[in-house]
Amino acid sequence: MLTKTVLAAILAITMSGAAFAAEPAKTGQSAKGPTLTNDQGMTLYTFDKDANGKSACNGPCAANWPPLSAPGDAQASGGYTVIARDDGSRQWAYRGRPLYTWVKDAKPGDITGDGFLNGAWHVAMP
């Protein structure tokens, strides 16, 4: 009987853990202090022209500012939500702001996109 109880407990813990996905971004360091980063440690950015949980960065813009992609089964957690993009793909947002990387950042900690386009792009802060 003890074995069934232990197995049931392990199963319950395993299943409850599946409901909690890891956050889509990590916290890294830059010259501006703590920043949100992707899994590779590259700085994430927000764009002032995004509004109401919708990305305004599509086409050539998205080629230079790749969206932080969210898988089809992604679930909102903490301050993170998932938005639908114009092309039908899904993107992570933090506190309602879609997240992007910048193609000209070469290594973790780079923040060369901060202030780009007359200050419209900003380092995403935790």
UniProtKB/TrEMBL annotation:
This is Lipoprotein with Yx(FWY)xxD motif. The keyword Transferase does not apply. It comes from the Bacteria. Pfam families: Lipoprotein_15 (PF03640). Residues 1-21 form the signal peptide. Coiled coil: none annotated. Keywords: Signal. InterPro entries: Lipoprotein_repeat, UCP029720. The keyword Signal applies.
